[in-house]
From TrEMBL:
Protein name, as recorded: AraC family transcriptional regulator
Record-linked Gene3D superfamilies: Homeodomain-like (1.10.10.60)
Keyword terms: DNA-binding, Transcription, Transcription regulation
SMART domains: HTH_ARAC (SM00342)
Domain HTH araC/xylS-type: 220-321
Length: 324
């Protein structure tokens, strides 16, 4: 059987396990599992866990509950090369999650997208169930206008989309929807599409879908290419136009009709990436000049001017404000 055809199921439960053995059981699971984390027990609270994990190519599902402990993914547990993204949905109770300098509290029906590249602390505040769907970043990147911007933001305005995703995923498991390679491929594809809907089409994509037509599709594809490659200093209107099979002037007109130029959209994406990096603790020691070059600017003074014009503050101001 090829790796593409493989799937696995793992059930973990502390039911019937003596309390003095539960911590070792959970630590072993999180040490060897797909999601690696330390288990830090809450003093005075009994450990209680019961969850099911389903791993298939390009998707891992987890449903169940964990209380009486915090999960901590330290920098040492971040796996090199793993840039997957996981949507965490609180089905009942309340969950706190901390990453990228943000401390979020999620209630029933709310969700958040987390990155495997980040250090994370997750803690159950009120007992209840959770659902998570983990997929490779390369799957979502072409489907979401700016997948980085979606990380660590509470999703509470799409209850229908969240419910449909969770219901579909649980029905796949209940109805043995991963039983054959053909069913797995179909089911996983649907999960990816539903996850993209939860994360939400941008206004540009929603408007393009309403207009339809080749022009809207080309503009959408051009924006995807820019968002996911904006750090490249050699990215140009000529290069993107060549990828799309159109002339540079035609591409420029598409952007102008949308209210922006190619260059202004590119600069905007580079500045957004720099702004995120300046606010994230893991880049605290990196010089501002290095961040400017990392996101695609070749001229530091131009970066500083553009940044101040966009955010009304200098890069150093943004960094010091995030550190307070």
């Amino acid at each position: 059987m090829s790796s593409k055809d493989q799937s696995s199921i793992l059930n973990v439960s502390t039911n019937g396990v003596p309390e003095n053995e539960r911590l070792a059981l959970l630590r072993e699971f999180y040490r060897c599992g797909v999601v690696k984390a330390e288990v830090d027990p809450n003093e005075g609270q009994p450990l209680d866990a019961s969850f099911n994990c389903y791993a298939v190519p390009e998707a891992q599902l987890m449903t169940g509950k964990l209380s009486g402990a915090r999960l901590i993914r330290t920098k040492e547990l971040v796996v090199d090369g793993d840039d997957s993204l996981a949507l965490v949905v609180v089905r009942s109770g309340a969950v706190g999650i901390s990453a990228r300098g943000r401390d979020l509290l999620l209630g029933p029906g709310e969700a958040v997208l987390a990155s495997a590249e980040d250090t994370v602390v997750l803690e159950r505040h009120l007992a209840g169930d959770c659902f998570s769907l983990r997929v490779p970043r390369r799957i979502l990147a072409p489907m979401i206008m700016d997948v980085d911007d979606a990380v660590m933001r509470i999703i509470r305005d799409r209850p229908s989309e969240i419910r449909v995703l969770v219901d579909y995923a649980t029905s796949l498991v209940r109805e043995n929807g991963f039983a054959t390679p053909a069913l797995r491929q179909l089911g996983v594809g649907h999960l990816h599409d539903l996850l993209a809907l939860v994360l939400g089409p941008t206004d540009d994509i929603r408007e393009s879908a309403g207009r339809g037509g080749a022009k809207a599709a080309r503009l959408r594809k051009a924006k995807f290419m820019i968002v996911n490659n904006c750090w490249r200093q050699d990215l140009s209107v000529a290069g993107v136009a060549q990828e799309l099979g159109v002339t540079p002037r035609y591409l420029q007109r598409l952007f102008e009709a949308d209210g922006k130029t190619f260059s202004s959209f590119l600069i905007e994406q580079r500045l957004k990436r720099a702004h995120r990096m300046l606010r994230e603790p893991e880049f605290a020691e990196r010089p501002v000049s290095s961040i400017a070059y990392d996101v695609g600017f070749g001229d530091l003074s131009y970066f500083n001017r553009s940044f101040r014009r966009a955010y009304g503050a200098t890069p150093s101001n943004v960094r010091s404000g995030a550190a307070e």
